[in-house]
Write a structure and sequence with these properties.
CATH architecture of the largest domain: 3-Layer(aba) Sandwich
Strand content: 5-15%
Order of helices and strands: HEHHHEHEEEHEHEHEEH
Number of helices: 9
Helix content: 25-40%
Number of strands: 9
Largest sheet: 6 strands, parallel
Oligomer: single chain
Strand order of the largest sheet: 3-2-1-7-8-9
CATH superfamily of the largest domain: TPP-binding domain
CATH topology of the largest domain: Rossmann fold
CATH class of the largest domain: Alpha Beta
Length: 282
């Protein structure tokens, strides 16, 4: 254990080789909303589940209408201080693997290396029948071609490219099918109620098993798909450091918790680590 008043920069330097796990708190400053408040409770209705998307045609049409409106804002998002700070931290410390629960690819845009997109990426669309992957931009163009009136719609943006759209015409949306097999198309992400692909989880476990500690940034960990890595770290006696503004599911498992805004905390840590190295090697 380390003293509770230890700075984040000093705490991170007590170990070599970290795995980083990130959540929505890294992306909120990019204008991308999150689902939970600081107490870990839902801020809005739970998103559509994978089962409903597959089985309910009207719900699927409403999803694609909302997604059409929300996608341009989502796709235009830029990396925040948190993303940039984590990319710098990767070069400051031995932290080769970053696992993110986000689907926005902002870590890659910030030049972070070796990112595992635990829940997939919203920039892709996958056919549920033949597994053909296509671009979300292509889906956007086909939706507009089939439904020119969609361009008239406007709504408040919601998390993960969604929008709070209330328009009775959504039941008329003509959703394009797969160009290869005419199968059902779905965003290439893990919806609520779905399982993360086993091989993806295994890759995360292998990265964590090879590391000496787990750094959590911007996640309440209320969803088990992320929390499982805290359980794994605990089982392997690997220290956990949490940087998150608000309650997390793993607070009792943490070696130390920094209840702070992610970007500021990480930038301060980078400054501290860089300053110490300049002092040592200058």
């Amino acid at each position: 254990m380390i003293p509770i008043n230890t700075t984040l920069g000093s705490a991170l330097q007590t170990l070599d080789h970290w795995v980083i796990l990130t959540g929505a708190g890294c992306s909120t400053k990019a204008g991308l909303g999150d689902y939970r408040n600081k107490q870990g409770e839902w801020k809005r209705p739970q998103p559509i589940t994978g089962q409903v998307f597959r089985s309910d045609e009207l719900a699927r049409k409403r999803y694609w209408a909302r997604s059409f409106v929300g996608w341009p804002h989502f796709a235009a998002a830029k990396p925040t201080d948190s993303h940039s700070a984590l990319a710098t931290l990767q070069s400051q410390l031995n932290a080769p693997t970053l696992i993110t629960q986000n689907v926005d690819q902002l870590h890659q845009k910030a030049k972070h290396q070796n990112v595992i997109d635990l829940h997939g990426v919203l920039s892709e669309v996958i056919c549920l029948d033949c597994n053909q992957v296509s671009s979300r931009e292509s889906q956007q163009e086909r939706l507009l071609s089939n439904n020119p009136w969609l361009s008239e719609l406007d709504a408040a943006y919601a998390p993960d490219g969604d929008a709070d759209l209330d328009d009775q015409r959504t039941h008329n949306v003509k959703v394009p099918n797969c160009l290869m097999c005419n199968g059902l198309l779905k965003p290439n992400v893990v919806f609520f109620g779905e399982n993360v692909p086993r091989e993806r989880v295994q890759a995360c476990f292998e990265a964590l098993d090879a590391a000496n500690g787990l750094l959590i940034v911007g996640s309440s960990l209320m969803v088990y798909s992320g929390f499982r890595f805290c359980r794994r770290a605990q089982e392997k006696n690997k220290p956990i450091i949490i940087v998150n503004s608000g309650l997390t599911r793993a607070d009792e498992l943490a070696w130390i918790k920094y209840d702070e805004e992610c970007g500021a905390a990480l930038n301060n840590a980078n400054t501290e680590i860089s300053g110490q190295r300049d002092w040592v090697f200058g």
